[in-house]
Amino acid sequence: MVKDRILVVDDEKIILELTSMILKNRGYQVLTAESGAEGLAVVEREKPAAVLLDYMMPVMDGMTALKQIRQRFPDTYVIMFTGKGSEEIAVELMKAGASDYILKPFNNQDLVERLENVLRIRRIELHNKELRQERERLLREIEKWNQELEQRVEEKSRELERAHAEILQAEKLASLGHLSAGMAHEIRNPLNSISLFGQILRSGLEQDPEMSGYADKILKEVDRIDGILVQLLAASKRPRFELELVSVAEVLAGVLEGFDAQLAALGIDVDSQLLSTPPQILSDSTEIEQIFNNLIANAIYEMQDGGRLGVRLDHDATKIRVDISDTGRGIPKENLNKIFDPFFTTKTKGTGFGLSVVLRIVKTYGGRISVESTEGQGTVFHIELPLS
After folding, report:
1. d(CA 277, CA 313)
2. If you average pLDDT over residues 379-384, what whole number do you get?
3. In a domain, 347, yes or no
4. Angle subtended at Cα 92 by Cα 119 and Cα 128, rounded to the nearest 5 degrees
5. What is the C-alpha separation between 154 and 365, in angstroms, rounded?
6. 249 and 222 part of one domain
7. Both 230 and 248 in a single domain?
């Protein structure tokens, strides 16, 4: 078994030869140096386990060499040779980092025992150091795992919240579908009667312009109620549709072009990022157009004093992604869970069916829609439509 490498530094050749002979006979690999500077160079090159270092040397004394070794090479332990046996020197050496000191002239057996004791302490301390480093590494790994676990829990929680919200929206749409179908039937019957009698009244009041105008107002309000019923049905039930292969990129570009004049009039910049051209999907082009029309119209409504409309299109192997953003007022946090509800609106004019229709269409195609908003900074809608 090859023992540790030991460096002996002394300006007396006889000490070097004697010490080398003693240590080599005990199986140690022995290196020698005749000055402090040479000793430092050997330590840097050979990384010995321990250094037997003379205290009194010309040019660079042992104390200076000791301090540099302990500072630059902490895994190399130092035993000092000294011919001065005062307690002050011993304390000074130990404070500077010496592991032990041996008085000259020394006893051969005592030298070996003192060296082996220092090497034994060194092994223990280096092992403890490795254990501490391993402990720190494990703690860092555990901390990393904890952070990853927390992130996964947060992601799963958000996914569960989104899934729960989607289930609630689906239930609302289903309930609305049953309710609106019944309401439309029940309301349209008396509405048709009102319309019929209104037309009769108008035909009998042609000679009285004022009264005829009242009849026209009645018929106009009848039409308005019927229009609301149509929107209510559209939000909950799919109207007539015609499936064909549709390019989402072309539909989106066409819808944007239709808003050109309005965007220019309001001073709204458009940041259009059509990053890819997705494959065509089997859909009703009017429905796809309605998604983008409603979302872009809402974005423009929020930027009456100018801003930036963002439109981003991309796709991967399974889905098309469209993001539509604005720099408007944003949606209050308390309203985020309500924006897809029928009749909910913050506009002074409007029925609150626009986003309900968007949700119904997106769900029809097995897609997903979500929203992020910060008050005073704007809103972004994320739409995903499956390619299959």
Report:
1. 8
2. 93
3. yes
4. 30
5. 28
6. no
7. no
Question: pLDDT digits over 160-205, tens only?
Answer: 887 777 677 666 666 665 566 556 656 766 777 787 777 887 777 7
pTM over 0.85: no
Q: Are residues 252 and 304 in the same domain?
A: yes
Task: Answer whether the bond into residue 209 is a cis peptide, omega within 30°.
Answer: no
Shared domain for 85 and 186, answered yes or no, is no
Residues 381 and 255 in one domain: yes
Q: Determine whether 270 is exposed, middle or buried from the number of CB atoms within 10 Å of its CB (0-12, 13-18, 19+).
A: middle
What residues make up the domain containing 222?
Answer: 160-236
Domain tally, the chain: 3
**And the tokens for 101?**
């000191």
Clarify whether residues 228 and 253 are in a common domain: no
State both tokens at 155. Answer: 């992601």
Domain boundary among 63, 90, 106: 106
